[in-house]
Write a structure and sequence with these properties.
Length: 893
């Protein structure tokens, strides 16, 4: 969360009105509900709309004709490599790769107030890009154009919005498809644009480059000569170049199978400057066509004409920084009538002078270990192009090949793109380092990043390393406490501490063996003991005032923190049992049972869980007290993410979730935030959302006697918290509510209104939003424990005919099942890597007690048996090692 200084500034700002254009966009996408917010009545939603949320449907496609392209910015620059956006028309923009450590994708201040009342200044961390979305930020020129020659005609079209009658953007992260159509041309063009992205492969997913694969189809009855031209401006030292000292250089580089130009910068011969290569924006660009016959030009000039596509330029061009320097490559093919051709291009950059103040080893970028400049990135990608492109496409196809609603698969997954923004960095020694949001609140903040379920499932090696190197390394203290911003803030946060112990357990589960746990158990145990020690009165409920994610030290016994600590210690118990540490497992069990009993008896008010004040301090300080708080049963939600089962009573937990639905969720936040000022605009009038805290008891001072700046948080809608609740609702069977919550967020981020890939909280691309992946986990009823070779699916949606992807420790693939009365069939196919499996949990129809079991792996029968119980499972006599391309098939009858 934001620092107190910036937060106070935000609360004091005043100014002008929100734009009428933005207000018009809001009303154009109003919610399909029959009534507006009313805390005392159930939500009367349109039944047909609710039903539509379950439909498989098709890919979300944004169209030029609907004015839906201008805000699209899909990160396509490799994880931990800076931010490069793919725009709705296929051009790259933003280009936050120059190590400025700026706050927000577009540092700015805009003026906003609900219903245009009492407007105030909003900066990046307060939602500036939510109120006024960024667009058309182009610090350097990059584009493609096509020259078409047929039947004596000649036509040039840029591949940008203004030159085509229709452009369609398919929002399938990590590989978007963009289709260009125009009745005036004899071809159709589709573009697949991406940076290599392969689940479990953090190395090849971290390349500073973008690939453009064009597919051109001659739809005419004539031969068409097609020349695709791509260009990229050399803006090395974009902010620090001095025309009196420096010159930019574009050079055609020799290569056997590709055509490539690299852009660099150098010191003029007569000048004296020995600091150039130390500047934050010093580095190189490269552009290439994967065709050694492509035409290269180191100094493309405008306006474009036929010569721009066909005449090669000089092999080297040097100019001063104030002259645009465009390197271009042109690939030409002849297409017979009805023929198709593929054209492949790649762009790369190498700007390694990152410096993070106060961070140990906080200089440089991980990619500099392998590549000395941008041309080496291009060469590596070309040498491995078939593998990188095929595996990226395989992941995309595997992910979206599901019976789950297509929109749901998009929204729950695409927040992983935060890793490919300047929220996240990887240092030369391999350390993963991150802000909370772009340039805001540093240091892998434990109380924010604990919500981010996606990264631990997609790139578990990065998370294991962070747990070991950072949380249990430089951040852990002798008493077991873990500094919540590593070396940058020398105190623990209690919610972050508990969440990190749960992450230790998740990272252990996402390992192929027990080495991670065995190696780190003494420190994990110490971290768990620290949680237990914060229960000063011995009732199993944490009661020590400590930092939390709402940036205050609350006193008393607080349901959401107590529940998180119970879940964290329960995870510690599970790890102790695996380590045969019976004494500590018993200590944890006692704490969990006592804490659960007291939380349910003392903090449940008959409807929802509350915050019991400290008996001495009372309600003088900030707290949630008798209000309905969004995270009140977060501990149970976390427990479901790692297969720990129940840590809180089901009926009381359901009552709490239903109270959140009743009191906190609204189909239009406008009336609420108009009455409850001080919150940041992460949802605005005309949009739905779940308010952080509401006051069902209508108390005059619900949050304590002292008004503080943090109180403004209570009146906001923050997607990371909302996703957490949606994941929990899904796990508890509140499927309608879970889908509605998730779709509400999805619609808030519709491309007609703002960037679908940028969920904003305390700055852009906020890490907590990766909690969305947790809703996918619970929709699948997914449980996994790599060292135990255990995997389970218990689908919440369409369990009779279900299919979804999965990731494991060192492999991923797809699982499907069909249920029909007393028949159950399942297929588990590995697409990448391998899966070690000893036990497979299955979800049978109620009353189904199978008498016959058959199993085969690639047609070979397997010896296994079925175990009945609350969690039925199939146990294989011999552990399986299912490799890529192999499928396990099971049948129970």
């Amino acid at each position: 969360m934001a620092s107190s200084i910036n937060r106070r500034k935000f609360l004091k700002n005043t100014g002008l009105l929100a734009t009428s254009v933005f207000a018009a966009r809001i009303s154009a996408h109003a919610f399909p509900y029959l009534n507006r917010w009313d805390p005392e009545l159930p939500k009367k939603l349109n039944p047909a709309w609710i039903k539509s949320l379950y439909e498989r449907s098709t890919v979300t496609t944004y169209l030029k004709s609907k004015n839906e392209l201008q805000y699209i910015g899909m990160p396509v620059g490799g994880i931990n490599c800076g931010t490069v956006y793919l725009g709705g028309d296929g051009r790259l923009w933003l280009w936050d790769i120059f190590n400025r450590n700026q706050e927000g994708v577009e540092p700015k201040e805009v003026m906003w107030g609900p219903y245009n009342k009492n407007p105030r200044g909003i900066i990046s961390r307060d939602g500036a890009c939510y109120v006024e979305p960024s667009k058309n930020i182009r610090p350097l020129q990059q584009d493609f154009a096509v020259l078409l020659e047929w039947d004596g005609k000649q036509l040039i079209k840029k591949l940008e919005e203004g030159d085509w009658s229709e452009i369609a953007f398919e929002a399938t992260y990590p590989m978007a498809t963009i289709r260009y159509t125009d009745p005036a041309v004899p071809i159709t063009i589709s573009l697949e644009s991406y940076s290599p992205f392969i689940a479990l492969d953090e190395h090849n997913s971290g390349l500073p480059a973008t690939i453009f694969s064009f597919h051109v189809d001659n739809t005419s009855s004539s031969e068409v000569r097609v020349t695709l031209l791509g260009w990229l401006e050399n803006k090395a030292c974009i902010y620090t170049a001095d025309p009196s000292l420096h010159e930019r250089i574009n050079t055609v580089l020799p290569a056997k199978e590709i055509s490539m130009i690299q852009g660099s910068i150098a010191v003029l011969k007569h000048a004296m400057d020995d600091t150039l290569n130390q500047k934050h924006d010093f580095g190189t660009f490269a552009i290439s066509a994967y065709n050694n016959k492509a035409i290269t030009n180191t100094n493309l000039l405008f306006p474009l004409n036929a010569n721009s596509f066909t005449n090669p330029g000089d092999p080297v061009t040097k100019v001063f920084p104030d002259v645009p320097m465009l390197a271009s490559v042109a690939d030409q093919r002849k297409l017979a009538a009805g023929a198709k051709e593929n054209f492949h291009f790649a762009l790369s950059w190498h700007f390694a002078n990152l410096e993070l103040k106060g961070v140990q080893e906080g200089k440089g970028r991980y990619y500099q270990n392998q590549f000395k400049d941008a041309s080496e990135v291009i060469t590596y990608i070309h040498s491995n192009f078939d593998k990188l492109s095929a595996q990226t496409k395989l992941w995309k196809e595997t992910w979206y090949d599901s019976t789950l609603p297509w929109w749901f698969m998009e929204r729950t997954f695409q927040n992983i793109s935060t890793l490919a923004t300047t929220t996240c960095h990887r240092l030369p020694n391999g350390r993963f380092w991150a802000w909370e949001g772009v340039g805001s609140c540093p240091g892998n903040c434990t109380h924010v990043w604990q919500y981010a379920q996606a990264s631990g499932r997609i790139f578990p090696a990065l998370e294991r390393d962070t747990r070991e190197r950072v949380d249990l390394g430089l951040a852990q203290q002798p008493d077991g406490g873990i500094w919540f911003r590593a070396e940058l803030q020398k105190r623990p946060a209690i919610d972050g501490q508990a969440g990190t112990v749960l992450r230790f357990y998740r990272e252990h589960q996402m390992s192929k063996d027990s080495q991670f746990l065995q190696r780190n158990w003494p420190n994990i145990k110490l971290a768990t003991q620290f949680i237990i020690a914060q229960d000063k009165n011995g009732d199993g409920m944490e009661d020590t005032p400590m930092e939390n994610t709402l940036d205050a030290m609350w006193a008393g016994e607080i349901a959401w923190i107590v529940g998180l600590c119970i879940a964290g210690v329960r995870a510690g118990q599970a790890m102790a049992e695996e380590m045969n540490d019976a004494a500590f497992a018993a200590t944890c069990k006692t704490y969990v049972e006592k804490g659960r009993r007291n939380m349910e008896e003392k903090l449940f008010n008959g409807e929802y869980f509350i915050h019991r004040p400290d008996p001495v301090v009372g309600r003088k300080k900030l707290g949630s007290y008798n209000t309905s708080h969004i995270d009140q049963v977060f501990g149970q939600s976390w427990a479901f993410q790692v297969g720990l089962g129940r840590v809180l009573d089901r009926q009381k937990t359901l009552s709490a979730l239903k109270s959140l639905w009743k009191y906190n969720f609204t189909t239009d936040v406008g009336p609420y935030i108009d009455e409850h000022r001080g919150g940041r605009p992460y949802a605005v009038p005309g949009e739905g959302g779940m308010i952080m805290n509401t006051n069902p008891k209508n108390e005059p001072k619900p949050y304590g006697e002292e008004v503080t700046w943090q109180e403004g948080y209570f009146n906001e809608c923050m997607t990371g918290f909302e996703h957490q609740v949606a994941a929990h609702m899904m796990a508890e069977g509140m499927i309608d509510e879970s889908l509605i919550m998730t779709r509400t967020i999805h619609d808030r981020y519709h491309a007609a209104k703002r960037n679908p890939f940028n969920e904003i909280e305390c700055s852009d691309h906020y890490a907590r939003a990766m909690a969305s992946y947790g809703t996918f986990i619970t929709a699948c009823g997914f449980e996994y424990h790599g060292p135990k070779q255990y995997l389970r699916f218990a689908p919440k949606l369409s369990p009779d005919d279900f299919k979804a992807p999965f990731t494991a420790a060192d492999g991923w693939g797809s699982y499907s099942q069909k249920r029909d009365g007393q028949s159950f069939t399942a297929q588990l196919g590995v697409k990448y890597g391998q899966l070690r499996l000893k036990e497979l949990g299955v979800d049978l129809q109620s009353g189904h007690k199978p008498g016959k079991l058959t199993a085969s792996l690639n047609g070979q029968k397997l010896d296994c048996h079925f175990i009945h119980g609350d969690s039925p499972k199939i146990v294989f006599v011999d552990s399986l090692n299912i490799k890529a391309g192999q499928s396990l098939i099971l049948h129970l009858s």
